[in-house]
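Notes from hallway chat w/ T.B., transcribed later so I don't forget. T.B. wanted the structure written out for a chain they're using in a teaching module, and asked if we could keep both sequence and C-alpha cells in one place. Agreed to drop them here.
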Amino acid sequence: MTTNPIQEIEAYGQSIWMDNLTRDLIHSGELDRMIRERGVVGITSNPAIFEKAIVGNATYDADIEAGVKAGKSVPEIYESLVFQDIQQACDVFKPVYTASGGLDGYISIEVPPTIANDTAQTIAEAKRYYAAIGRENVMIKIPGTPQGLPAVEAVIAAGINVNVTLLFSVESYVESAWAYIRGLEARVAAGLEVRSIASVASFFLSRIDSKVDSLLQARLATTTDPDQQALIKSLQGKVAIANAKLAYEKYQEITQSERWLSLAAQGARVQRLLWASTGTKNPNYSDVMYVDELVGADTVNTLPPLTIEACADHCDPASRITTGLEAAHQVIAALPSLGINLDQVMAELLEDGIAKFVQPFDSLLQSLTTKALSLTAV
C-alpha cells in the first residue's frame, strides 16, 4: 500500500482543509473524492473563491433566474447561491464532523468584506449567516481587524463557530486568541456550555513573503556591502515561516495560561492556528514549502487544490513547527537593520487583504446584476 503524505501529516496532529468551493465540486462527487483519497477534512471559502465559482458558470443560472422571478434583490440572490453551496458542503462533510467529534468537517463562510471595520454589523451578520445556514459544522469568518476582534468575542459568546481571518502579525494572532478566550469566559459566566464551540485563527503566509521579498530585493539593489548582500539573500522566502513559528510559540504559551487551563477543564477546545495563503507564489521556492515546514500538533493547513495534489505527490511530513525556533527569531530580528518595519508591512497586508476580498465581492454583485437584467430582458 502506498502512503498518502496528507494522512502522514494528520498523524502529527495537523488537519488538511481545502481552500476552494464550487457547486460543480459538490455535484460531480469530486468533493467526496477529496475526502476519501486526499484526506481533506474541511473547506474554507472567501469572496474571491465565490466570484470564480459563480461568474460565467451556467450551473448557477437556473437559481439566479428563479431569484429574479421571485423578486429578490441582487444581494439576496447572491446569498441564496452561496448559502446553498455552504449548506450542501456542510452536509458532505457532516460525517467527518461527527467522526472527529467536532474537531474537523467545518465549512467556512465570510461575512461581507465591506463591513470589516464595523463591529456591530459584523456581529449581526455573523449571527444571521449562522441562523440562515442552519448547520452546526459551519464556521463564520470574521476579519482580524481592530473592529473585527470584539465581534469575534461576541460571536463566540453567542455559541457560534468562528474562523478569524486575515491575520498577519503575531500580535494580531495573540489578540484573536484572547478574544476567543474572552468569548468562552462570557459563556461560562452565563452558565452556558463551551464544549461545542470551535475556532481557528487563520494566519496568512505567502503574501508576507511576496511583500517582504520585494522589499529585500529593493534593498539588495542599493547595497554593495557583501555581508549585507549575504544577509538579504539568506532572508528571502524565510520571513513568513519564521513569523508562523513565532505565532505557534505564542499559542503554546497561551494554552498553558491559567485562564485557558480553566476553560479546558470545562471541555473547551483550543483555537487552532490555521495556515492560510499556502499556495507558493514564487516559482523558485518549493511548491509545498508552506506545508512541510509548518506541520505540528493542533494546527490546520488550508491548501488550494493544486497544492493538495503537489502535497499528495511529494510532501515530506515531519513535525517541524517547533524546530529552528532560535533561527526564526533571528530572521525576524534581522529585518529592522535592513530598514524593513514588519509592523508596517503587516498593517499594509491587512488593508490590502480586505481590499482583495472587497473587489471580487463587488465584482460578483455587479456580474449578478448584469445577469439578472439579461434574464429579465424581453
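Follow-up for T.B.: Strands lie at 14-18, 43-44, 107-110, 138-143, 162-167, 199-204, 272-276, 299-303. Might be a good example for the class.
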